Amino acid sequence: MTEEMIRTNALRVLCAQVQEEPQHVVLESHLEGELRIDETGLAGVLAALRAEFGLPADALTSRFVTVREVLDEVVVSTSSARRAPAPPAAPAPRPSPVPEPAPATDRRDLVLEVFRHHTHYAASELRLDADLEGELGVDSVLLASILGDLGKRLGLPKGAFKAGTVRTIDDVLVALRRMTPAEAAPPVAPSTTPNPGEKWHDAAPPPRPHDDGDARTLKDFTEERSRDLFGKVRAFNEFYKKRRDEQLFWYGMPLESACRNRAMIFDEVTGKRREFLMFASNNYLGLANHPRVVEAICDAVRAYGATNTGCRLIGGTNVVHKELERRLARFKNREACIVYPSGYSANLGSISALAKTNDAVIIDKFNHMSILDGCKLSGAARKIYQHNDMADLERILERLADQVDGMLIVTDGVFSMHGDICKLPELCRLASRFGAKVLVDDAHSTGVLGARGSGTAEHFGLKGEVDLELGTMSKALAGLGGFVVGDADVIEYLRFYSNSYAFAANIPAATAAGLIAALDVLEAEPERLQVLWRNIRRLKQHLLDAGFDLGESESAVIPVVIGDDALALRLGRAVRDRGMFCQTVVYPGIAVGDARLRVSVSSEHTDEDLDLAAQIIADAAREVGFEPNRHGTWAS
Ligand SMILES: Cc1ncc(COP(=O)(O)O)c(C=O)c1O
């Protein structure tokens, strides 16, 4: 295939994946901004390209911004895949007593070469995930010869591969990745100078399990291909178990007490119950255990029972729901409010109700997943502008203005994994210039921003400028559910056209009663907001003094930016060891390579908690061997 043919073919595949006509796509088109291909979408495009061109699983892994970059890389990968590798029959003697494992691509090429040799299949027919027996007819006898030959060529000890565990070529590659550097090293030609006998683990301490070259992240399992629908499940679980055994994944440790500044937690890693400093909760104003809130819930359960057993439109509405909607509208200073079962479903329901096929939703790159999912559900064109980049937003609006009917700009008020605030004034100006509507998701701004804690619009003095304000009640408001406030006619429309409202049961009346009590406390005790901000400033100052990069955080969400996923996981493990619970955020919470600890502050934290938390993070950073520097990056 000529280079030109490869490019044309690759463009065809890319366009088919994202339902664009090739003639409408220019090479400089921004994948995310113009073609609305987000990270997950791009993973699908790249998987389709790998399949089309018979490229290995680790091809096309660069960070692509434009269409041209993708096509260039397909050309490069396709031509290097065509060059047959020379089997390393007699590589040069290695000077180091610590043999390096063969680079992953060389190993993969060698594995494919051996399989080709024994099976006589063409390269394009040897899919890495093809079932060797069922699809390629490689029986156990042939497989044993292949693995024996491969082991010999790689200088592996006999029986290095457990034949019973190999069902695909991918399994062979995974097994190779798991072997120690010594086992997986390419063969070393007999050396004339005798090796002093030093083993790799004598030269340096054995690497921790996660340092075995397995650089996979959760993202690697989203496009795992298999004829067996559950193939991806098995691959993921094997990876997940490994990460758990290494104590790098400890998500979901169960609390055995109320969630306050500290919490008793059953530590599943050590099998013991212990007290943790709690910095993973979004109980920003400490209302989750407030006696008035708890009492209101108990009273309402006694009055109205455990739950309402239907959706709001058919029998599931309680007077307390109506009262809560009135109170939220008043708190937000808007005409009307609709309460959804969750913040997630509020985004899904409201965006998909309002934006339709001929409309466009324009969203910030760092918006919450529920916004992204709402856009997908809506079927409207989805455009993504670079984070808080108003020039990019303007460019997109200019291009879209005469191509679509309605436009909806959606932004987080406070970005949930970054803690920074959207540029609402500029955003509203652009929206009004281009006739677009604005929806702000105040999940992390409600109870945090604005003199009364009512959110982003209040913070910027822009009440009335934002069309719709959305919020969740599972964070500062200490309950459950989501809501949208706005003009009464829009809110009524949402009740009938948001499927997540019309076709789903809503929060129990008792939860609604607890939320009303939480609003009462918020209004009666404004000092909670002041204490929260004092705490935020104290912890931030400690962390900044220690040199950590906190991004542009201006809220109760304080990210400790790390970047590398493996390093963040190791840091999270060291923090957990020291008895502090904060989130280690990796994909899909954040893009791969932008990992971080996410520390959330509450008005319940004492000075001692805050000082200790900063100390723990600094000590943990030292333990994992990284010093934060003051320029916001990490130096080893
Ligand atoms: C910005 C944002 N929107 C929506 C949600 C979803 O809210 P809920 O957990 O109430 O479903 C979250 C939750 O983390 C969020 O951070």
Descriptive report:
The protein is globular and about 75 Å long. The model is unreliable at 86-101, 184-210 and 631-636 (pLDDT under 50). The chain starts with a helix and ends with a strand. The protein has 636 residues and is an alpha/beta fold. The strands form 4 sheets. Strands 3-9-8-7-6-4-5 form a 7-stranded mixed β-sheet, with helices on both faces. A 3-stranded mixed β-sheet has the order 1-2-11. Helices cover 42% and strands 11% of the residues. Pyridoxal-5'-phosphate is lined by residues 342-344, 347, 368, 370, 412, 416, 441, 443-444, 472, 474, 482.
Structural class: alpha/beta
Number of helices: 22
| Span of the ends, CA to CA | 45 Å
Mean pLDDT: 86
Rg of Cα set: 28 Å
Number of strands: 15
Strand content: 5-15%
Give the key terms.
636 residues; alpha/beta; three-stranded mixed beta sheet; 22 helices; 15 strands; 42% helix; disordered C terminus; binds pyridoxal-5'-phosphate
Summarize the structure.
By secondary structure, the chain is of the alpha/beta class. The chain is 42% helix and 11% strand. It has helices spanning 3-18, 39-53, 67-82, 104-119, 140-154, 169-178, 181-184, 200-203, 231-245, 291-304, 319-331, 343-354, 369-378, 390-400, 424-434, 456-460, 488-497, 499-502, 509-524, 527-545, 565-577, 607-623; strands at residues 262-267, 272-278, 336-340, 360-364, 381-385, 407-412, 437-441, 468-472, 482-486, 557-563, 580-581, 583-585, 595-600, 627-628, 634-635.
